[in-house]
Structure formats: structure tokens, C-alpha cells
User: What shape does this take?
Amino acid sequence: MPDKLDILLVDDDGAVQRALKRTLECLLTAEIDTASSGMEGLEKCKDKTYDIVISDLSMPGMSGTEFLKQLMQFAPETIRIMLTAHSDADQVLEAVNEARVWSYLKKPWNDKRLELVLEQAVTMRRVLVERSMLKTALVKAESRRKRAVEGFIGESKALKDVYSIIEKAAPSSASVFITGESGVGKEVAAQAIHNLSKRKHDNFIALNCAAIPSELMESEIFGHVKGAFSGAVSNRDGAATQADNGTLFLDELGEMDMGLQAKILRFIQTGTFQRVGSGKLEKVNVRFIAATNRAPLKAIEDGHLREDLFYRLNVIALHLPPLRERGDDVLLLANHFMRCYMSEESKMFSGFSDDAKTLLRQFSWPGNVRQLQNLIHSCVVMNDGPLLTASMLSSQLPVEQAQISQVVTSSHAGISQAANRQQIQQDAGGVVIAPSVEMPIAINSESDIQSLADIERKAIQDAIAFYEENVVKAANALGVSPSTLYRKIQQW
Assistant: This one.
């Protein structure tokens, strides 16, 4: 609560206004405004937030009840007090019911009664303000907690759909199969599901099936007993035992040996397994989450993934969108990574230049969030502020990708050239024509002939320029998928 209160008096009787204002000034430290009608009072309340509003009940035009009822709609935490004559008892009851009037004063008022009402009103206003501040803080804290737990940053619709699936899937024990390109955050999603589940107090064990040699993978998952193989000098718990009552995440499942996939299927179905070198069955309670950067059905067709294992794990499907499909999330992520690495590397940057933002938005990010994170880290290390520019970003990209970024940052020139080619023409009949393609050039010699590749490239570049670098719109106009255009741009 501020030390100085803001109070509004609304009464059509000037003498009452002046008398009540003098009394209030003696009782409180307050800035007191006045209004002579309900309409004037509403205008003042729209421009300023008042702690307390005291209004006469009976006024010409808008009644005090109607005024306070409208005030309640956009300033519910303002304390509303009614000023009324003895004969207005029924109207006072109506005001209490419809406008949620907190208290009322009778005319002529008693100074002791006025002082008591104001003292209680100030206390109540303080409670309401503190409650509102606490509610706001709790909402923000909960939002930060959820996002921090989930590990995701972004507000695009594509990512909100991911949030929704994670929040619905987490309380369940159903298996989850996560798909998405490399670097999109599949392990982050798996960790989020675990952290929001009832198993959050037990272990989350992640195994990258592509990073562990196939001859060691069975031992990594199921453990082994002493003497099971050369070097097994003692019993060892595997991921299955470590994840008991928790979550086991099998990343890049399509890279696992097909024979071991059969054992994993049996483990999932029965909850039992045998350590390498042991004939004893052990039973655990594990939730399974699997992931792959392959298209699952194609992986099945190519013999990299067992069909029965996929369908056993694919109870809840979660697809993570590539970074290029997440719009301005790339800027939120870039700023987040910059703040993290500024602190870590003791550097100071105020943000990104406009050309850097253009590059960040338009670049295709084949390595997704992981590539962006590494790029920002590298740029922070290798440069000094105040701004990270497009040239700084390009200098830290691989050579082929740096060339693509140069095409992106020169996009404005392409737009103006396309605009010149697409000038609106008007024929004699007044019909406006905006041609979408140029007329073919007559071939008079061999030098006039263009290769199909050059014609295709020009058509794509013109379409992208026409749609102001919106690759999705350009792809739709050309009748191809956006991924086709991104691939073409990378090839160029």
C-alpha cells in the first residue's frame, strides 16, 4: 500500500463534496479527487486507480448503484463505499447486492462512524492489494517453475501443443514415443514428462543407444554378474535396476541391435529381465520413454526398428517440431542462451542487431536448438558487445551454412528486385494485371538457353522474395513442401 491514498468522492451536491473532503483530509493522508456525476466518476476511474471511492446513492442521470456496479467491472479491488440518506434503505440493499458495496455512510455522517469505516476500508484495501500481488507472484512463479521443469523456452503454437501433450501424458504411466530431428530436445521432453509425473522423486535414467557399442548395450541396460565376461570383476546394476519406480529413457532406439530390441520388448511386456551371466529373473516397475530421429515407419521398413516394439512403446506419440517451424521462438532462445553465456564467459551484450534477428528468423537451423545454442556460445566467446551482428553469427557457422546465411541477410535487396519485376500493369480496358511469372525470353541463340536447374532456382528465389522471405507461403504457391525449399537453399 502507498503511504498516500487516492480517494474519489462522487456527489452532485457541491456542499457535501467540500464538507466530506475537509473531514477526510483531517483523518487521512490522501489525494482526494471529486466528481459531480456517475459518468464523470467513471471517466476519472478509467484514467486513475483509486484505493477508495465514496459515492452518493441518489444522483441525476446515472445512479450511484449503476456507477459502482460499472466500477466493479474494471476496478474490483477498489473499496466502494455508499453515501446515502435514511430513506434509501431499499436502494442501499440493492447496491450491496449488485455493486458489492463494502460499506455505507448515512447523511449527515457521524465523524466517529466515518473514521471507523475509513480505518476498516484502509485495512481491507491493504489486504486486497497484498493478495493481488501474491496471486500475481504465484502465477509467475508457477509459470517459471513449469517452464523451468519442462526445460523449454518458446511461445509458438507448435511448442504450446508440445506443452499440452507433456502435461497430459506426465501423470500417466503409459509409454511415450518421441520423434523429431536431431537437436530438437527429445531428452528435454522426456525429462519434463518424468519431472511432472508421480515418479519425479525416483531416478530418470537416460541411455543413448547410438553412443554405446552394441556388445556393451545389454549390460548397460540389464546389468551383469561377476564373471559374466572378461572384465566383469563384480556385480553391476544396469539402467533397468537404477530406474526402478522411475523412468527409463531409450534415446535413438532405432540404433539398437535388433536382437536386443527383442529382449527390450519382453522386458516391457513382463517387467522382468535377467542380468548378463545370470539365470535369475528380476522384476522392476519402470516407465518407458523412447525416442528416435528417424521416421519410425521408414525405420521399420528399413529393418532398423522392430514393428512390435514400436507399437508397444507408441502409446502416447509426441513429435517435437524443428526450430525452423517455431517462428520467433528462435529469438527467445537466442536471447536466453546469450544471457546464460554472458554470465558464464564474463561478457556483456545488450542484444542482437536487426540483421542478426533477420538471420536468426530466416535460417533453416538443420541442427535445431542444439546448433543455435552452440552458435550463440561461440559468438559470445569470440566477440565483444554491445550487439551480436549477422556477420558475427555467420563467421561461426560451417562454410556451407555461412554461405546460406549471406543469402538470407541480403533478402531485402531480393524483395525490391522482385517488386520491380512484379509491377502492376493496366491495360486499355482498365483491368489490373499483376503477373506472377515473367514472360519467357525468346531463344535466338544457344546462349539464350537456360538450364532447368537455373530456371528452378530463379523461380524459387522470386517466389520467396515475393512473399517477403516467408518460405512456407512460397512453398505453397509453388506446390511443394517447405522442407524441399529449405533443402534447395542449403544445396545452393
Notes: Residues 411-441 have pLDDT under 50 and may be disordered.
